[in-house]
Structures are given as C-alpha cells and as structure tokens.
Amino acid sequence: MAETAELRVGDKTYELPIIEGSEGERAIDISKLRADSGLITLDPGYGNTGSCESAITFIDGEKGILRYRGYPIEELAEHSSFLEVAHLLMAGNLPSASELEKFRESIRYHTMLHEDFKSVFSSLPKDAHPMAACSAAVGALATFYPDSLDPRDPREVEVSVHRLIAKMPTIASYAFKHSIGQPFMYPDNRLDYVENFLHLMFATPCEDFTVDPVVAKAIDLLLILHADHEQNCSTSTVRLVGSSNANLFAAISAGINALWGPRHGGANQEVIEMLKTIEGEGVSGREFVERAKDRDDTSRLSGFGHRVYKNFDPRAKIIKKACFDVLEKLGVNSKLLEIAVELEEIALKDDYFVQRNLYPNVDFYSGVIYTAIGTPDKMFTAMFALGRLPGWIAHWLEMHAQDQRIGRPRQVYQGELSRSYVPASSR
Ligand code: ACO
Fold first, then answer.
1. Looking at ligand 1, which atom is closest to the CA of residue 305?
2. Would you call 363 a catalytic residue per the annotation?
3. How far apart are CA 291 and CA 304, in angstroms?
4. What is the CA radius of gyration of the chain?
5. Spacing, Cα 303 to ligand 1 middle (Å)
6. What is the residue-wise DSSP string for 326-373?
7. Cβ(270)–Cβ(302) below 8 Å
C-alpha cells in the first residue's frame, strides 16, 4: 500500500498521500487538503513547497549535484554544446546527429528580427538597462509574430520556440548596440549559435571581425551552465504566467524580469560592481567580508549563498576553473579575479558563512570571464537570460503537457475586518 502521512487537527485526522520522486525525494500531497478540511498551508518564499512534478533538472543541494535530464552538469560542460543542451532540456533526450543538425538549421533560419524591430530599440533611452530592453523586445515578439501564439497548437509552439531561441542573441545584441550607439548588425548564418552572438555583439560594419575560438568556447560553456536550474524564481514565474495560457513570448518576458533582480540573476552584475568597488576604494577583502556580515550595513557578499545549495554550487566550481583557463589563454591578468579568490578564501573560513552554509554560487566568477572578453557589466544578466532560455522553455512546455491548472496561491488574510465607508468630509 502507498505510504501516507496523517495530519491531526483537533479531533479530526486527515490522511495525505506521500509522493516519491525518482531520486527518492518525498513530498506530502496537500492538493486536496482545503477541500477536505478547509485548511490551507502557509509557506512564504515557497522554501518548503513543491509547485509541480518535473522531469527536467535534478538538484541535490546538500551534495552539490546538478543534472539535466539525468546527465551530470560536469559531463555536459565538458562534452556538449549549448544547442545540444537546449534540445536535451526541451525534448528530454540527447538528439541524434541528424536531429541536432535539423534543430541547428531551423535555429539558423530564424535568427533575423523583423526590420521594424530596430525602431523598438531606437525608441528606448540610450542608458536603458539591457534586461528592460530584452524583456520589452521578447514581449514585443508577440506583436510581430501573431501567427505562433497558441500554446495548444503544437506547430505554432514549435515555431515560436525556434523563433525565440534563434532571435534571443539578436535581441540581446541590439540592446547592447543601442546602448553604445553602434549600428545593429545582421546575423551571419554561416556562423554557429555562439559565434553568431559574438559577431552580433562585437562586429561593426566597418571592419572584419573574427570570432576568437577561446572566447566562443567560454561563452558556450557559460550558456550550458546557466541553461536550467529547476523551480527557481524566474522559472517559476514563467510557469505561473504560462499557466494562464498566455503565449510563450509573454511568459518568457516575465521570466526575464524576474531574473533581473539582484537576489537572482542580477547578482552577476552586482558581483563585478562589488569587485570593482573593492578595487577602487582600496578596501581589503577582510574589511568587505566584515561589512557583508554586519546587519546594519546594506552590503552583502554578492554571488554567495543559495536557497537550495548548502554545499558548493557545482556550476561555480566549473566556472572558477574556466576563469583561470580563459584568462590565461587570453593573456589577461585580472585584479578582479585576485580579489574574488581572496574574498572566497576569507568567507569559506569565516564562522558566519560556514554556519549558514554560504558558498559561491553561479554568479560569483562568471562576471570575471565576461569582463575579460570585453562585455560591459550591464550586459551580464542578459547573457544569463540567453543561457536560461531553453530551461524556461522546457518548463513552459512541460507545464502545458501536464495540463496544469492555473497557478493561483492562497493567502492568510490578516487585514481589517469588515467596516463601512465613511465620506471624506466625515473622516
Ligand atoms: N552575504 C551575507 N549574508 C548572507 C548572504 C550573502 N550573500 N546570503 C545569505 N546571507 C545570510 C542572511 O543574512 C541570513 O542570515 P540570518 O540567518 O542571520 O538572518 C542567512 O544567510 C540565510 O539567508 P537568506 O537570505 O534567508 O537565504 P535565502 O535562501 O532566502 O536567500 C539568496 C538566498 C537570495 C541567494 C541569498 O543567499 C543572497 O541574497 N545572496 C546574494 C545574492 C546572490 O548571489 N544571488 C544569486 C543566487 S544564484 C541565482 O539566483 C542565479
């Protein structure tokens, strides 16, 4: 017989099913609790709430394990490519050589943006943050491509998914080009996905541009490492918006906004700004760590801590190593990397961080690589969004395949009791 849990409230007992995941994770299914008892559960921040059953990504935060569709992140980082990982996340299996080629071809075919898109970007202020520009542009895709918006039509879904993956590098690069006043570049479909992105970002119409293979490989790796992370804030946002049957572009645009926050993907920009401040002000690593611990100081050690990982974030380990490799290959001597290493060493030995299980997360070292290849700080979180896109899409697809009900949490009301309106003249 399937295992159950019992909940006793007063003299009543409720039997609740226990769901067991494929990796042994157990959950009490409370989906019928309110109907049976009138009670709801309360879990602000959802630290203890499973919002769905999912087959995409597995994380064991205690052991520092991350797998996409069963494949360890370390193996994918070493052997795979971003588009292959995107296919894996969305379709569930690694593609055959011919499936991968077909997928690549379709993505190549859709890289160009509607010409009128240029005016969408041109109408934004020059100092618009790229994340605001990207979310606006992704939302605007729904106005340019109204023929692929129905989430229940498999053909329309496929077209919108391929369009979005193909156009995201173009969108991100337009946000960047607009901010520095350079002309928008057209995609070059002879190049692969990452090479094309670098061409869109760093080429100009005046000069030849050759993609540095060291840089392309580093970006491909970073995109793989950012591609999914189960029910994080932005992915849950995508699922929640998608559950209303809003179109894919609308759901992803919302996800981009969620990612922007400094507690989430925006931390990669915060980290580099923190390192530059430490360098600029001549503050010692020890001094800064003391500030980050002080409740009366607003400083935090950006890029440290994670809701799920209570051990090393496996992505941070890979990125730290890549950081040293890439900088060495590019011949870059980075003071920022030295400061990051010093901060990490101090924090990992400090009781405050040890007791709270705070380790470097994915954002701690990524910015050092982005900086070394000439990416401005404000673009970092947009690079994260580019990587996370296939994960968001995979969850949007899975949520629809599960035919999930509209996402609609409850609340415990703690406000005023019923009272009567009093006209302004009598208040
Ligand atoms: N620096 C200093 N103290 C920290 C840090 C940090 N980076 N992170 C957590 N803490 C402390 C908190 O103050 C709290 O201390 P307390 O128990 O004395 O009150 C304790 O550690 C637990 O932290 P919470 O904020 O309650 O943990 P939560 O799981 O809610 O938050 C989060 C996780 C948001 C990532 C947090 O660690 C943080 O703000 N880190 C810095 C921002 C960051 O790097 N975000 C990127 C995360 S990865 C990603 O989203 C891509």
1. 37
2. yes
3. 14
4. 23
5. 9
6. HHHHHT---HHHHHHHHHHHHHHHSHHHHHTT--B-THHHHHHHHHHT
7. yes
Q: Compute, in angstroms, the gap from residue 418 CA to the centroid of ligand 1.
A: 39
Structure tokens belonging to residue 88: 């894996």
Q: pTM to 2 decimals?
A: 0.95
CA of 305 to the centre of ligand 1 (A): 5
Q: Which amino acid is located at 380 in the chain?
A: F
Residues facing 66 on adjacent strands:
59
How does 385-399 read in b/e, with b if 16+ C-beta sit within 10 Å? bbbbbbbbbbbbbbb
Of 226, 306, 313, 350, catalytic: 306
Tokens for 350, please give them. 């400090």
* Distance of alpha carbon 153 from alpha carbon 146, whole angstroms: 13
d(CA 18, CA 27): 6
The CA distance from 139 to 304, in Å, is 31
Amino acid letter, residue 64? G
Tokens standing for residue 202: 């760093």
Which amino acid, one-letter code, is at 277? Answer: T
Q: Is 272 in the pocket of ligand 1 (CB under 6 A)?
A: no
Alpha carbon distance 355, 180 (integer Å): 44
Q: Is 294 one of the catalytic residues?
A: no
At position 268, the amino acid (one-letter code) is N
- For a mutational test of ligand 1's pocket, the pick from 231, 306, 346, 357, i.e. the residue with the most ligand atoms closer than 8 A to its C-beta, is 306
Q: Which atom of ligand 1 is nearest to the CA of 303?
A: 44
Beta bridge mates, 65: 60
- Residues comprising the chain, all counted: 427
Measured CA to CA in angstroms, residue 194 lies from 53, 141, 143 at distances of 32, 21, 27
Distance CA 346, CA 353 (A): 9
Give the Å distance between the CA of 66 and the centre of ligand 1: 20
The first and second tokens of residue 390, run together, are 């296939």
> What are the pLDDT tens digits along the chain (427 aa)?
689 999 999 999 999 999 999 999 999 999 999 999 999 999 999 999 999 999 999 999 999 999 999 999 999 999 999 999 999 999 999 999 999 999 999 999 999 999 999 999 999 999 999 999 999 999 999 999 999 999 999 999 999 999 999 999 999 999 999 999 999 999 999 999 999 999 999 999 999 999 999 999 999 999 999 999 999 999 999 999 999 999 999 999 999 999 999 999 999 999 999 999 999 998 899 999 999 999 999 889 999 999 999 888 999 999 999 999 999 999 988 899 999 999 999 999 999 999 999 999 999 999 999 999 999 999 999 999 999 999 999 999 999 999 789 999 999 999 999 999 999 999 9
